[in-house]
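Please check this one:

***
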Amino acid sequence: MWSALGILLALWMSGCTAPSSNISAESEGKPLVVSTSTIIADMAEKIGGDEIEHQGIMEPGADPHIYEPVPADSVAFEEADLIVYNGYNLEPALIKLMNAAGVKAQKLAVAEKVTALQNPEQGELVPDPHVWGDAENGIVMVNAIRDALVELSPEDKEVFMENAARLVEELQQVDIWINKQIATIPESQRRLVTTHDAFEYYVKAYGLEMTGTLIGMTTEEQPSAQTVKNLAEEIKKTGVPAIFAETTINPKLITTVAEEAGVKLAARELYSDSIGAPGSEGDSYVKMLISNTQAIVEALGGANY
């Protein structure tokens, strides 16, 4: 299966560049699609291909929870023909800007095509926006973007359908592969501890248990010393072999948790709210799912193959 996955990855090598925000002269006449997060931008670029002009708002590694818009973002929204954003309040400042600007573009809250898990946050249940952790939800998102692009530019329907079908097929294969990989982890060690609560869909889909997180679904929170202590104690009780930092969040506090719990911090960080920089292990949505799974399996005692 690993060799098959290697072939699958090779198919994408020519299309794994990070989202671009450059508008070229060649794009005149093409519909302008603006995406917020890098995960959505990667999907939109792969589905739209050369038939659209695409502008991604965030750079790889940016945290959508705390992203602060710049004037160029308002211009992009005003010029867009289609705005694709996550929704479920993942990117609150951009959603506020988009609504305040009174833009005339079509808008697609692509994650809201998935029925959200409801998680407790500050005393109430709110939708968990991190739906892409389950590859099956990723397929829902791909199909929603495809349909929006077809509506935007019907003459390019065939291209959009073909590109989306290719991405869906790849995600289906990755979904099967993740399940097989996670199954190699000893059952008692299939426990995940991360910096923030961004992996509920992943653990639910692939047979893990969320032992705990340092902060909740939004990275705006600041954990207290008591929170750090309580998480360290929970890790000791459950015998988790490793815990994980994330690429979009400063690892200092989760490192402190690891030290207090006497457990190792996994060598590889997880991609949570953003794909990686160009050339990194997680520089596309598909590759971030693969990289995260490899990191989890290695650190929790499974066997990557």
In short: The first strand starts at residue 32 and ends at 35. The beta strands are 32-35, 53-56, 82-85, 106-109, 118-121, 124-127, 191-196, 209-215, 242-243, 264-265. DSSP finds ten helices and ten strands in the chain. The first helix runs from residue 2 to 10.
